[in-house]
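Target chain:
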Amino acid sequence: MKNILLEKIIKNSQLYANDKIIIDKERSITWRELLKDSKNFSKKIGRIREEYIPIIVGRNINSVISILAVNLSDKAFCPISDKFPRAKIKRLFQKLNSKNYINCSQRKIKFKNYKEINLYSKEKIRGKKLPSNRSTFYILFTSGSTGEPKGVKLSYNNILNTIIWSKNYLHWKKDDCIGLATELSFDISMFDLFSALFYNVPIYIFSNPSNPLVTLGEINKYSVTSIFSVPSFFSNFSYYGVLKKNFYPLRQIISGGDYFPPKEILKWRKFQKKIKILNVWGPTETSIVNTMHFLTSKDFKNLKKNKNIPIGKSHKLMPIKIIDDNYKIIKDPYKIGEICMLGDCVSQGYLENNENNKNYILINNKKAFRTRDNGYFDKLKNFYFSSRIDQMIKISGYRIDALEIQRVVNSFKIVNNSIVFLEHNKRMKNLCLAIESKKFLSID
Protein backbone atom coordinates (compact mmCIF):
# COMPACT_ATOMS: atom_id res chain seq x y z
CA MET A 1 0.00 0.00 0.00
CA LYS A 2 1.31 3.43 -0.91
CA ASN A 3 2.47 5.34 2.15
CA ILE A 4 1.72 8.99 1.40
CA LEU A 5 2.87 10.21 4.81
CA LEU A 6 6.39 8.74 4.63
CA GLU A 7 6.72 9.61 0.94
CA LYS A 8 5.96 13.25 1.75
CA ILE A 9 8.52 13.26 4.57
CA ILE A 10 11.21 11.81 2.29
CA LYS A 11 10.33 14.30 -0.46
CA ASN A 12 10.61 17.19 2.02
CA SER A 13 14.06 15.96 3.06
CA GLN A 14 15.13 16.28 -0.58
CA LEU A 15 13.48 19.63 -1.30
CA TYR A 16 14.59 21.31 1.95
CA ALA A 17 17.77 19.32 2.67
CA ASN A 18 19.68 22.15 4.38
CA ASP A 19 16.78 23.69 6.28
CA LYS A 20 16.54 23.14 10.02
CA ILE A 21 13.52 21.04 10.93
CA ILE A 22 13.96 19.84 14.57
CA ILE A 23 15.45 21.99 17.34
CA ASP A 24 15.98 21.29 21.01
CA LYS A 25 17.87 23.08 23.77
CA GLU A 26 21.18 21.40 22.87
CA ARG A 27 21.23 21.40 19.07
CA SER A 28 19.34 21.60 15.79
CA ILE A 29 19.14 19.18 12.88
CA THR A 30 18.51 19.69 9.16
CA TRP A 31 16.26 17.62 6.95
CA ARG A 32 19.29 15.90 5.40
CA GLU A 33 20.74 15.01 8.81
CA LEU A 34 17.39 13.80 10.11
CA LEU A 35 16.79 11.43 7.22
CA LYS A 36 20.39 10.19 7.15
CA ASP A 37 20.46 9.33 10.87
CA SER A 38 16.97 7.82 10.75
CA LYS A 39 17.77 5.64 7.72
CA ASN A 40 20.98 4.36 9.27
CA PHE A 41 19.22 3.51 12.51
CA SER A 42 16.28 1.90 10.67
CA LYS A 43 18.60 -0.73 9.15
CA LYS A 44 19.46 -1.91 12.64
CA ILE A 45 15.85 -1.83 13.86
CA GLY A 46 14.61 -3.67 10.76
CA ARG A 47 16.43 -6.84 11.83
CA ILE A 48 14.64 -7.06 15.15
CA ARG A 49 12.06 -9.82 15.00
CA GLU A 50 9.38 -7.90 16.86
CA GLU A 51 6.31 -6.06 15.63
CA TYR A 52 6.31 -3.13 18.06
CA ILE A 53 9.34 -1.11 19.16
CA PRO A 54 9.03 0.79 22.47
CA ILE A 55 10.89 4.09 22.66
CA ILE A 56 11.55 5.69 26.04
CA VAL A 57 11.30 9.29 24.90
CA GLY A 58 12.83 12.46 26.28
CA ARG A 59 12.65 16.08 25.22
CA ASN A 60 15.33 15.79 22.55
CA ILE A 61 16.10 15.28 18.87
CA ASN A 62 17.17 11.66 19.34
CA SER A 63 13.56 10.79 20.22
CA VAL A 64 12.43 12.15 16.85
CA ILE A 65 15.20 10.33 14.97
CA SER A 66 14.19 7.08 16.66
CA ILE A 67 10.50 7.54 15.87
CA LEU A 68 11.23 8.15 12.19
CA ALA A 69 13.73 5.27 12.13
CA VAL A 70 11.08 2.84 13.36
CA ASN A 71 8.71 4.16 10.67
CA LEU A 72 11.34 3.59 7.98
CA SER A 73 11.98 0.06 9.25
CA ASP A 74 8.33 -0.87 8.60
CA LYS A 75 7.55 -1.37 12.27
CA ALA A 76 5.26 0.38 14.73
CA PHE A 77 6.70 2.58 17.47
CA CYS A 78 5.35 3.10 20.96
CA PRO A 79 6.56 6.26 22.76
CA ILE A 80 6.85 5.83 26.54
CA SER A 81 7.56 8.73 28.87
CA ASP A 82 10.88 8.60 30.71
CA LYS A 83 9.01 10.01 33.72
CA PHE A 84 7.07 6.76 34.16
CA PRO A 85 8.14 4.50 37.05
CA ARG A 86 10.33 1.55 36.04
CA ALA A 87 7.61 -0.94 36.95
CA LYS A 88 5.14 0.77 34.64
CA ILE A 89 7.63 0.91 31.74
CA LYS A 90 8.34 -2.78 32.13
CA ARG A 91 4.62 -3.52 32.20
CA LEU A 92 4.18 -1.70 28.89
CA PHE A 93 7.07 -3.71 27.40
CA GLN A 94 5.18 -6.86 28.37
CA LYS A 95 1.96 -5.64 26.78
CA LEU A 96 3.86 -4.91 23.57
CA ASN A 97 5.54 -8.32 23.73
CA SER A 98 8.88 -6.57 23.16
CA LYS A 99 12.28 -7.66 24.45
CA ASN A 100 14.10 -4.77 22.73
CA TYR A 101 13.70 -1.06 23.38
CA ILE A 102 15.23 2.30 22.47
CA ASN A 103 16.19 4.68 25.26
CA CYS A 104 16.28 8.37 24.27
CA SER A 105 16.14 9.60 27.84
CA GLN A 106 19.07 11.14 29.66
CA ARG A 107 18.32 8.58 32.37
CA LYS A 108 20.11 5.26 32.18
CA ILE A 109 17.20 2.83 32.18
CA LYS A 110 18.25 -0.80 32.16
CA PHE A 111 16.07 -3.87 32.51
CA LYS A 112 17.09 -7.45 33.07
CA ASN A 113 16.20 -9.68 30.09
CA TYR A 114 15.51 -6.62 27.89
CA LYS A 115 17.99 -5.29 25.34
CA GLU A 116 18.57 -1.59 24.65
CA ILE A 117 19.05 -0.65 20.98
CA ASN A 118 21.53 2.22 20.86
CA LEU A 119 21.20 4.88 18.16
CA TYR A 120 24.93 5.51 17.79
CA SER A 121 26.29 2.06 18.67
CA LYS A 122 28.10 0.17 15.89
CA GLU A 123 26.82 -3.13 17.26
CA LYS A 124 25.10 -5.18 14.56
CA ILE A 125 21.86 -7.00 15.14
CA ARG A 126 21.61 -10.42 13.59
CA GLY A 127 18.60 -11.65 11.69
CA LYS A 128 16.74 -11.00 8.48
CA LYS A 129 14.58 -7.98 7.81
CA LEU A 130 10.95 -8.88 8.48
CA PRO A 131 8.11 -8.23 6.01
CA SER A 132 6.52 -4.80 6.01
CA ASN A 133 4.04 -4.02 8.81
CA ARG A 134 2.25 -0.94 7.59
CA SER A 135 -1.12 -1.66 9.18
CA THR A 136 -0.11 -0.15 12.55
CA PHE A 137 1.82 3.11 12.55
CA TYR A 138 2.18 3.66 16.29
CA ILE A 139 0.70 2.64 19.63
CA LEU A 140 -0.20 5.07 22.39
CA PHE A 141 -1.13 3.93 25.87
CA THR A 142 -4.02 5.87 27.32
CA SER A 143 -5.86 5.93 30.68
CA GLY A 144 -2.77 4.46 32.21
CA SER A 145 -2.47 6.67 35.28
CA THR A 146 -4.43 4.05 37.20
CA GLY A 147 -5.37 0.48 36.52
CA GLU A 148 -4.33 -1.28 33.32
CA PRO A 149 -3.16 1.00 30.47
CA LYS A 150 -4.91 0.55 27.11
CA GLY A 151 -2.72 0.48 24.00
CA VAL A 152 -4.47 2.23 21.10
CA LYS A 153 -3.36 1.06 17.64
CA LEU A 154 -3.26 3.83 15.04
CA SER A 155 -2.57 3.49 11.32
CA TYR A 156 -0.76 5.73 8.85
CA ASN A 157 -4.13 6.57 7.35
CA ASN A 158 -5.47 7.71 10.75
CA ILE A 159 -2.78 10.33 11.31
CA LEU A 160 -2.66 11.33 7.62
CA ASN A 161 -6.42 11.98 7.67
CA THR A 162 -6.01 14.21 10.73
CA ILE A 163 -3.09 16.18 9.29
CA ILE A 164 -4.82 16.82 5.95
CA TRP A 165 -8.08 17.78 7.69
CA SER A 166 -6.25 20.25 9.98
CA LYS A 167 -5.19 22.31 6.94
CA ASN A 168 -8.73 23.72 6.91
CA TYR A 169 -7.90 25.52 10.15
CA LEU A 170 -4.12 25.78 10.46
CA HIS A 171 -2.62 27.60 7.50
CA TRP A 172 1.12 27.15 8.04
CA LYS A 173 3.41 29.90 6.73
CA LYS A 174 7.10 29.92 5.82
CA ASP A 175 8.10 31.70 9.02
CA ASP A 176 6.05 29.47 11.34
CA CYS A 177 7.61 27.41 14.13
CA ILE A 178 5.74 24.85 16.23
CA GLY A 179 6.52 24.72 19.94
CA LEU A 180 6.27 21.17 21.29
CA ALA A 181 5.05 21.47 24.88
CA THR A 182 3.63 18.02 25.69
CA GLU A 183 5.47 14.76 26.31
CA LEU A 184 6.31 12.77 23.18
CA SER A 185 4.32 9.92 24.71
CA PHE A 186 1.17 12.07 24.59
CA ASP A 187 -1.05 12.15 21.49
CA ILE A 188 -0.88 15.94 21.03
CA SER A 189 2.87 15.61 20.39
CA MET A 190 2.16 13.22 17.50
CA PHE A 191 0.01 15.89 15.88
CA ASP A 192 2.77 18.48 16.36
CA LEU A 193 5.56 16.24 15.12
CA PHE A 194 3.94 14.85 11.99
CA SER A 195 2.35 18.18 11.06
CA ALA A 196 5.86 19.65 11.19
CA LEU A 197 7.33 16.86 9.05
CA PHE A 198 4.43 16.82 6.57
CA TYR A 199 4.12 20.59 6.06
CA ASN A 200 7.83 21.41 6.53
CA VAL A 201 7.35 23.55 9.64
CA PRO A 202 10.33 23.72 12.04
CA ILE A 203 9.55 22.40 15.50
CA TYR A 204 11.18 23.45 18.76
CA ILE A 205 11.04 21.04 21.70
CA PHE A 206 10.57 23.13 24.87
CA SER A 207 13.17 22.18 27.46
CA ASN A 208 11.01 22.64 30.56
CA PRO A 209 7.33 23.30 29.75
CA SER A 210 6.37 23.37 33.44
CA ASN A 211 8.39 26.58 33.87
CA PRO A 212 6.55 29.42 32.08
CA LEU A 213 9.45 31.88 32.41
CA VAL A 214 11.88 29.49 30.70
CA THR A 215 9.25 28.67 28.08
CA LEU A 216 8.59 32.34 27.32
CA GLY A 217 12.31 32.87 26.79
CA GLU A 218 12.38 29.97 24.34
CA ILE A 219 9.26 31.23 22.53
CA ASN A 220 11.01 34.51 21.84
CA LYS A 221 14.47 33.06 21.16
CA TYR A 222 13.30 30.44 18.65
CA SER A 223 10.40 32.47 17.21
CA VAL A 224 7.72 29.96 18.14
CA THR A 225 4.43 30.93 16.46
CA SER A 226 2.07 28.09 17.48
CA ILE A 227 1.63 25.95 20.60
CA PHE A 228 -0.79 23.04 21.05
CA SER A 229 -1.06 21.87 24.65
CA VAL A 230 -3.34 21.13 27.59
CA PRO A 231 -5.11 24.00 29.45
CA SER A 232 -2.92 23.69 32.56
CA PHE A 233 0.13 24.57 30.44
CA PHE A 234 -1.49 27.85 29.33
CA SER A 235 -2.93 28.58 32.77
CA ASN A 236 0.57 28.52 34.27
CA PHE A 237 1.47 31.71 32.38
CA SER A 238 -1.20 33.72 34.19
CA TYR A 239 -0.65 32.00 37.54
CA TYR A 240 3.03 32.99 37.57
CA GLY A 241 2.39 36.49 36.22
CA VAL A 242 4.08 35.82 32.88
CA LEU A 243 1.03 36.45 30.71
CA LYS A 244 1.52 40.23 30.90
CA LYS A 245 4.94 39.95 29.26
CA ASN A 246 5.83 40.11 25.56
CA PHE A 247 4.96 37.03 23.47
CA TYR A 248 5.83 38.78 20.19
CA PRO A 249 6.31 35.76 17.83
CA LEU A 250 3.36 33.71 19.14
CA ARG A 251 0.33 33.85 16.83
CA GLN A 252 -1.94 31.10 18.12
CA ILE A 253 -2.50 28.75 21.02
CA ILE A 254 -4.40 25.49 20.62
CA SER A 255 -5.97 24.12 23.78
CA GLY A 256 -7.14 20.51 24.00
CA GLY A 257 -7.11 17.38 26.12
CA ASP A 258 -9.05 18.93 29.01
CA TYR A 259 -11.41 21.72 30.05
CA PHE A 260 -9.94 25.21 29.63
CA PRO A 261 -11.40 27.34 32.49
CA PRO A 262 -13.22 30.41 31.07
CA LYS A 263 -11.37 32.75 33.45
CA GLU A 264 -8.04 31.58 32.04
CA ILE A 265 -9.22 31.98 28.44
CA LEU A 266 -10.38 35.53 29.20
CA LYS A 267 -7.00 36.37 30.74
CA TRP A 268 -5.26 35.33 27.52
CA ARG A 269 -7.76 37.47 25.63
CA LYS A 270 -7.15 40.44 27.92
CA PHE A 271 -3.34 40.44 27.93
CA GLN A 272 -2.57 38.88 24.53
CA LYS A 273 -5.28 40.14 22.19
CA LYS A 274 -3.26 39.47 19.02
CA ILE A 275 -2.91 35.76 19.80
CA LYS A 276 -5.66 33.57 18.33
CA ILE A 277 -7.14 30.88 20.57
CA LEU A 278 -8.40 27.56 19.23
CA ASN A 279 -10.71 25.31 21.20
CA VAL A 280 -10.20 21.70 20.07
CA TRP A 281 -11.55 18.29 21.03
CA GLY A 282 -10.79 14.65 20.29
CA PRO A 283 -9.77 11.36 21.96
CA THR A 284 -6.65 9.30 21.24
CA GLU A 285 -8.82 6.54 19.77
CA THR A 286 -9.89 8.83 16.92
CA SER A 287 -6.49 10.18 15.96
CA ILE A 288 -5.74 12.96 18.41
CA VAL A 289 -8.06 15.82 17.47
CA ASN A 290 -11.40 15.84 15.64
CA THR A 291 -12.72 19.39 15.95
CA MET A 292 -11.22 22.88 15.88
CA HIS A 293 -12.85 26.21 16.58
CA PHE A 294 -11.26 29.69 16.55
CA LEU A 295 -12.74 31.66 19.42
CA THR A 296 -14.65 34.74 18.27
CA SER A 297 -15.72 37.97 19.98
CA LYS A 298 -19.11 36.36 20.50
CA ASP A 299 -17.47 33.39 22.24
CA PHE A 300 -15.59 35.68 24.64
CA LYS A 301 -18.84 37.46 25.49
CA ASN A 302 -20.51 34.11 26.14
CA LEU A 303 -17.65 33.01 28.38
CA LYS A 304 -18.18 36.10 30.52
CA LYS A 305 -21.80 34.97 30.92
CA ASN A 306 -20.68 31.40 31.80
CA LYS A 307 -22.15 30.05 28.57
CA ASN A 308 -20.76 27.07 26.67
CA ILE A 309 -18.60 27.64 23.57
CA PRO A 310 -18.34 25.41 20.47
CA ILE A 311 -15.66 22.81 19.89
CA GLY A 312 -16.11 22.94 16.11
CA LYS A 313 -18.11 21.45 13.26
CA SER A 314 -18.37 18.10 11.52
CA HIS A 315 -16.30 17.76 8.34
CA LYS A 316 -16.30 15.13 5.60
CA LEU A 317 -12.87 14.00 6.84
CA MET A 318 -14.05 14.12 10.47
CA PRO A 319 -17.72 13.09 10.54
CA ILE A 320 -19.39 13.61 13.94
CA LYS A 321 -22.73 12.23 15.06
CA ILE A 322 -24.69 12.54 18.30
CA ILE A 323 -26.32 9.23 19.23
CA ASP A 324 -28.85 8.13 21.84
CA ASP A 325 -28.71 5.08 24.13
CA ASN A 326 -29.91 2.86 21.27
CA TYR A 327 -27.15 4.08 18.92
CA LYS A 328 -29.70 6.03 16.88
CA ILE A 329 -28.50 9.30 15.37
CA ILE A 330 -30.00 12.38 17.03
CA LYS A 331 -31.17 14.91 14.44
CA ASP A 332 -32.65 17.56 16.73
CA PRO A 333 -30.45 20.54 17.73
CA TYR A 334 -29.62 21.00 21.43
CA LYS A 335 -30.61 17.44 22.34
CA ILE A 336 -27.80 15.87 24.39
CA GLY A 337 -26.40 12.48 23.44
CA GLU A 338 -23.08 10.70 23.08
CA ILE A 339 -20.51 12.15 20.69
CA CYS A 340 -19.57 9.51 18.13
CA MET A 341 -16.78 9.74 15.54
CA LEU A 342 -16.91 8.07 12.13
CA GLY A 343 -14.59 7.72 9.16
CA ASP A 344 -10.84 7.39 8.66
CA CYS A 345 -10.07 9.00 12.02
CA VAL A 346 -11.29 5.88 13.87
CA SER A 347 -8.29 3.84 15.03
CA GLN A 348 -7.74 0.09 14.68
CA GLY A 349 -8.79 -0.69 18.22
CA TYR A 350 -6.88 -1.66 21.34
CA LEU A 351 -3.75 -3.76 21.54
CA GLU A 352 -5.49 -6.29 23.73
CA ASN A 353 -8.85 -7.72 22.82
CA ASN A 354 -10.73 -6.60 25.92
CA GLU A 355 -14.13 -5.18 26.79
CA ASN A 356 -13.04 -1.64 25.88
CA ASN A 357 -13.28 -2.62 22.22
CA LYS A 358 -17.06 -2.55 22.60
CA ASN A 359 -16.82 1.21 22.03
CA TYR A 360 -15.89 0.49 18.40
CA ILE A 361 -19.23 0.06 16.67
CA LEU A 362 -20.93 0.34 13.27
CA ILE A 363 -23.27 3.21 12.39
CA ASN A 364 -24.96 2.93 9.01
CA ASN A 365 -22.45 0.16 8.23
CA LYS A 366 -19.54 2.53 8.85
CA LYS A 367 -16.87 2.08 11.52
CA ALA A 368 -17.45 4.40 14.44
CA PHE A 369 -16.17 5.08 17.95
CA ARG A 370 -18.23 5.91 21.01
CA THR A 371 -16.19 8.61 22.75
CA ARG A 372 -18.08 8.38 26.09
CA ASP A 373 -18.40 12.18 25.92
CA ASN A 374 -21.83 13.81 25.97
CA GLY A 375 -22.54 16.68 23.65
CA TYR A 376 -24.98 18.38 21.31
CA PHE A 377 -25.11 20.64 18.26
CA ASP A 378 -26.92 23.92 17.64
CA LYS A 379 -28.94 25.17 14.65
CA LEU A 380 -25.73 26.26 12.91
CA LYS A 381 -24.27 22.73 13.27
CA ASN A 382 -21.71 23.85 15.84
CA PHE A 383 -20.89 21.01 18.24
CA TYR A 384 -20.55 21.40 22.02
CA PHE A 385 -19.05 19.15 24.69
CA SER A 386 -21.15 18.87 27.84
CA SER A 387 -19.84 16.08 30.11
CA ARG A 388 -18.23 12.66 30.46
CA ILE A 389 -20.56 9.66 30.50
CA ASP A 390 -18.52 7.32 32.66
CA GLN A 391 -16.48 7.76 35.80
CA MET A 392 -13.32 8.95 34.08
CA ILE A 393 -11.79 12.16 35.39
CA LYS A 394 -9.77 14.20 32.91
CA ILE A 395 -6.76 16.19 34.15
CA SER A 396 -4.16 17.75 31.83
CA GLY A 397 -5.31 15.49 29.03
CA TYR A 398 -4.93 12.26 31.02
CA ARG A 399 -7.98 10.16 31.78
CA ILE A 400 -8.01 8.76 35.29
CA ASP A 401 -10.49 6.17 36.48
CA ALA A 402 -11.76 7.37 39.87
CA LEU A 403 -13.34 4.03 40.68
CA GLU A 404 -10.06 2.22 40.01
CA ILE A 405 -8.22 4.48 42.46
CA GLN A 406 -10.89 3.85 45.09
CA ARG A 407 -10.67 0.11 44.51
CA VAL A 408 -6.89 0.10 45.08
CA VAL A 409 -7.08 2.37 48.15
CA ASN A 410 -9.90 0.30 49.67
CA SER A 411 -7.74 -2.80 49.36
CA PHE A 412 -5.51 -1.54 52.22
CA LYS A 413 -6.48 -3.05 55.56
CA ILE A 414 -6.47 0.27 57.39
CA VAL A 415 -8.96 1.84 54.94
CA ASN A 416 -12.69 1.38 55.51
CA ASN A 417 -13.86 3.40 52.52
CA SER A 418 -12.66 6.12 50.17
CA ILE A 419 -13.87 8.52 47.52
CA VAL A 420 -12.06 10.35 44.73
CA PHE A 421 -13.21 13.79 43.64
CA LEU A 422 -12.05 16.90 41.82
CA GLU A 423 -11.36 20.19 43.53
CA HIS A 424 -11.36 23.30 41.34
CA ASN A 425 -9.25 26.32 42.20
CA LYS A 426 -8.44 29.42 40.20
CA ARG A 427 -5.61 27.82 38.26
CA MET A 428 -6.34 24.14 37.75
CA LYS A 429 -8.13 21.01 38.87
CA ASN A 430 -6.78 18.97 41.76
CA LEU A 431 -7.45 15.27 42.20
CA CYS A 432 -8.40 14.62 45.82
CA LEU A 433 -8.83 11.49 47.89
CA ALA A 434 -10.90 11.29 51.07
CA ILE A 435 -10.35 8.25 53.29
CA GLU A 436 -12.45 6.76 56.05
CA SER A 437 -9.90 4.84 58.11
CA LYS A 438 -10.39 2.06 60.62
CA LYS A 439 -7.74 3.62 62.87
CA PHE A 440 -6.68 7.14 63.75
CA LEU A 441 -4.24 8.54 61.20
CA SER A 442 -1.74 11.22 62.16
CA ILE A 443 -0.94 13.90 59.58
CA ASP A 444 2.57 14.36 61.02
